[in-house]
Design goal:
CATH class: Mainly Beta
Mean pLDDT: 89
Radius of gyration: 22 Å
Order of helices and strands: HHHEEEEEEEEEEEEEEEEEEHEE
Strand content: over 45%
Structural class: mainly beta
Distance between the termini: 31 Å
Strand order of the largest sheet: 1-2-3-6-7-8-9-14-15-16-17-18-19-20
Shape: elongated
CATH superfamily: Outer membrane protein transport protein (OMPP1/FadL/TodX)
Number of strands: 20
CATH topology: Porin
Number of domains: 1
Length: 345
């Protein structure tokens, strides 16, 4: 009992710190470090517009709310995911997790970004220098989640972020922490969740690529190597609050309705609503809507309806395996497609 109280107090302190951090006005859009941390992952949740902070469970909950990891009903699970993002960028995501009796659940994640080759250009060689760079962005995560009672679970993820291109690189640490409360007020199926994300260190680029040949007009040294001091930036802190309700409306037919509000310290506030209809807990149809706008009326390119479906093969062929798909329409770019394969053990 004492341990549960301590964990809850820690969670409350973290949430209070996050609220203070996020109180700054949204006038710094596009200036954060590691913006890739904000790209949603997981076809199941994305198909519901990400309104699942209160209901996400199992290994797919790690990105949305790590508190839901220990709510999985299997001993171990793994997800292999791919998202076709904007500008021909591809995102691959792997998450594996295991549940230990009496201890909780532990998960490991890897996100990698396929940005592709980029031709190097300069002021004098606008058509290219012939040099090609291949940026490498990846994030490693370690998650711990614990179900404190039948209704309350907490969790946290520590992410190591690394970015590199040409001859420069930057790295940092970002922490996610969340809590979920199920059967709120004694009402079966009603849940609430809170999650803060990307509370961490600043990131600053360094490397030999920052040394340039230049002449200082205030000295007599002539052409000399000078180091460009890169600025440091904070992580894109986020807080999400969500509410969800899951109920059986007919025999073998369940409906999940959820909503969430997201405050982004470096971008637009987001309002999410999503729904899922399942048959025998093995066939799933999902839809969601994400809306975001700032004080000046500028809208995000990701504001349209999201759609998706899923299938659990265990009910049909006896294989502990599932497949999920999500479709995300985007303004000015090709639509995003997400594919997940889940294997349970």
């Amino acid at each position: 009992m004492k341990m549960r109280v301590i964990l809850l107090l820690i969670m409350m302190n973290v949430l209070s710190l996050a609220v203070t951090t996020l109180a700054i006005a949204q006038d710094r859009a596009g200036t954060s470090a590691a913006p890739e941390l904000l790209i949603p992952l997981g076809a199941k949740e994305v198909a519901m517009s990400g309104a699942t902070v209160s209901s996400a469970s199992g290994v797919s909950a790690i990105y949305w709310n790590p508190a839901g990891l220990d709510m999985m009903d299997v001993s171990a699970s793994a997800i292999f995911s791919h998202r076709s993002y904007i500008a021909d960028i591809g995102i691959n995501y792997i998450a594996v997790a295991s549940k230990f009796s009496g201890f909780g659940s532990v998960g490991l994640t890897l996100r990698s970004f396929g940005i592709g080759d980029i031709n190097v250009t300069t002021e004098d060689q606008t058509d290219g220098t012939g040099e090609i760079i291949s940026p490498t962005f990846f994030t490693l995560g370690l998650t711990y989640s614990k179900q404190l009672t039948d209704n309350v679970s907490v969790g946290a993820t520590v992410n190591m972020v690394n970015e590199s291109f040409a001859r420069v690189s930057a790295s940092g640490i970002a922490v996610d922490a969340g809590v979920q409360y199920q059967n709120l007020g004694g009402m079966k199926g009603l849940g609430i969740g809170v999650c803060v994300k990307n509370i961490g260190t600043t990131m600053q680029y360094s490397g030999s690529g920052l040394w340039v040949l230049a002449t200082d007009p205030s000295s007599q040294r002539g052409l000399t190597q000078y180091k460009v001091e890169a600025a440091s930036y904070q992580m894109p802190s986020v807080i999400e609050i969500g509410l969800g309700y899951n109920t059986e409306i007919a025999e073998n037919i369940n409906v999940l309705i959820s909503g969430a509000f997201e405050n982004d310290n470096y971008g637009l506030d987001k309002y999410r609503i999503g729904g899922e209809v399942s048959y025998m807990k093995s066939l799933f149809l999902r839809a969601g809507y994400l809306y975001s706008t700032n004080l000046y009326g500028n809208e995000s390119i990701f504001q349209n309806m999201t759609l998706g479906f899923g299938i659990d093969l265990k009910e049909y062929v006896g294989i502990a395996m599932g497949f999920d798909y999500a479709y995300v329409p985007v303004k000015y770019f090709d639509a995003n497609h997400l594919f997940d394969i889940r294997i349970d053990f």
